[in-house]
């Protein structure tokens, strides 16, 4: 019946207008009588909601909230950790029907033989492994950092170590360490790409023996930016002079932009009392004892450049002695103010050759003629009260009691009286060790 209908429609164009109308009406009647089946049988396609949209959009519909909902405080507990990548662990050709597909999951030719499509044995534990992998998604937490590995503030990168620079050919940076000083997100507005986001990293590297270099690197990801900066800093190394392998050669003043830094040389065992960026730089350079005060801007980049500028401009004691043509003598409390000659010039000037306006104060000379204003320390307010006088009278009999105890322990190994040698019973009561051990066991 359908083939007859097609044949009639082809010959319809050859008929007159009246005949066409009659034939058309007849065709409409015949079409109503025909069963409603397609003339051509197409393969059916399942195009439902889950096949049309990608996984990201499907998860987004579940885990996100509309802008209106966000304004009302909804969706606070929803986060990306609830999203699970269901494609993770899935391998082509491995599943309920394990098949070997030449050219897709296996090579077409193996040796001299052509690989044929074949069925592989089933893996009963595959689904259990997939379920375990999916259960672990979203619950992973980073391992807790040890106190030594932490930076300036917890797990954030500034202040943390990222290891030595990558080797270049035969050059290996053994003994070097790199620390991050700054890691921030920067944006650049482009005409064709719009607002472009990148990560900027500032790092400093050194071998803890006077060699140091710093650099800045940018990248789309933090790892890329830090790697670029780390390898670039190894190409810009400079040597820093260290006095007695623990401190700077002399006090100095340095400045970069709006940052001013005053640095003082300190004896061994003093430690690093300074800005956290300066402390990180000193650890990389190899300086162990220092006191520094920052005035003005505390921008990390400015602080780093100002401090390194001061370290590079240091003069050795011999250079100072040759410049002034005078002996350089050190007086320190650690040596009982006993004079120690640090450097002597080739030709020393006499007293009548010294200028009247010449700077002879070593501290003032190191600070380029500047005099540091030291604010007067006023006594606390409570020292003027009558109650404080009463307190001093009551504490007079206990004055220096702790110091006396420490001196006795250091000299005799115990707290004893000056009459102990004459009267041995003049010492603190101590129980026998056997009694102490019995109590500990009990």
From TrEMBL:
S5 DRBM domain location: 176-240
Keywords noted in UniProt: Mitochondrion, Ribonucleoprotein, Ribosomal protein
Main location: mitochondrion
GO cellular component: mitochondrial inner membrane; mitochondrial small ribosomal subunit
GO biological process: translation
PROSITE patterns: S5_DSRBD
Cell compartments where the protein resides: Mitochondrion
Keyword Transcription regulation found: no
Any one Pfam family match given in the protein's UniProt record, by short name: Ribosomal_uS5m_N
InterPro entries in the record: Ribosomal_Su5_D2-typ_SF (IPR020568), Ribosomal_uS5 (IPR000851), Ribosomal_uS5_C (IPR005324), Ribosomal_uS5_N (IPR013810), Ribosomal_uS5m_N (IPR048584), Ribsml_uS5_D2-typ_fold_subgr (IPR014721)
MF terms in GO: RNA binding; structural constituent of ribosome
Family to which the UniProt record says this protein belongs: Belongs to the universal ribosomal protein uS5 family.
Protein name: Small ribosomal subunit protein uS5m
Source organism: Tribolium castaneum
């Amino acid at each position: 019946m359908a083939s007859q209908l097609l044949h009639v429609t082809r010959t319809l164009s050859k008929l007159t207008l009246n005949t066409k109308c009659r034939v058309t009406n007849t065709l409409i009647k015949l079409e109503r009588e025909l069963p409603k089946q397609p003339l051509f049988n197409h393969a059916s396609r399942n195009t439902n909601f889950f096949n049309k949209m990608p996984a990201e959009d499907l998860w987004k519909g579940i885990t996100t909230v509309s802008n209106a909902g966000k304004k009302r405080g909804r969706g606070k507990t929803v986060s990306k950790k609830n999203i699970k990548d269901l494609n993770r662990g899935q391998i082509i050709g491995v599943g309920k029907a394990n098949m070997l597909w030449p050219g897709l999951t296996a090579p077409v030719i193996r040796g001299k033989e052509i690989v044929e499509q074949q069925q592989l044995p089933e893996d009963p534990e595959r689904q259990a492994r997939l379920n375990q992998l999916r259960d672990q998604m979203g619950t992973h937490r980073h391992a807790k950092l040890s106190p030594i590995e932490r930076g300036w503030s917890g797990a954030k990168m500034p202040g943390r170590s990222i290891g030595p620079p990558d080797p270049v050919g035969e050059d290996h940076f053994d003994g070097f360490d790199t620390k991050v000083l700054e890691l921030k997100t920067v944006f650049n507005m482009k005409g064709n790409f719009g607002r472009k986001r990148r990560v900027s990293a500032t790092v400093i590297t050194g071998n803890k023996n006077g060699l140091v270099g710093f650099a800045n690197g940018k990248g789309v990801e933090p790892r890329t930016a830090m790697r670029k900066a780390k390898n670039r800093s190894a190409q810009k190394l400079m040597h820093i002079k260290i006095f007695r392998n623990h401190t700077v050669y002399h006090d100095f003043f340095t400045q970069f932009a709006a940052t001013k830094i005053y640095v003082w040389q300190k004896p061994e065992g003093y430690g690093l009392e300074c800005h956290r960026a300066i402390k990180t730089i000193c650890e990389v350079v190899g300086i162990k004892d220092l006191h520094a005060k920052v005035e003005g801007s505390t921008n990390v980049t400015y602080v780093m450049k100002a401090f390194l500028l001061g370290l590079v401009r240091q003069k050795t004691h011999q250079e100072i002695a040759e410049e002034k043509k005078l002996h350089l003598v050190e007086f320190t409390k650690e040596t009982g103010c006993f004079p120690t000659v640090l450097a002597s010039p080739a030709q020393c000037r006499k007293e009548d050759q010294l200028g009247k306006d010449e700077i002879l104060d070593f501290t003032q000379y190191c600070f380029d003629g500047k005099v540091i204003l030291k604010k007067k320390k006023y006594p606390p307010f409570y020292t003027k009260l009558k109650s404080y006088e009463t307190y001093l009278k009551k504490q007079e009999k206990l004055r220096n009691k702790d110091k006396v105890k420490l001196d006795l322990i250091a000299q005799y190994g115990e707290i004893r009286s000056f009459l102990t040698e004459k009267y041995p019973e003049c010492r603190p009561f101590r129980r026998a060790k056997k009694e102490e051990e019995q109590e500990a066991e009990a």
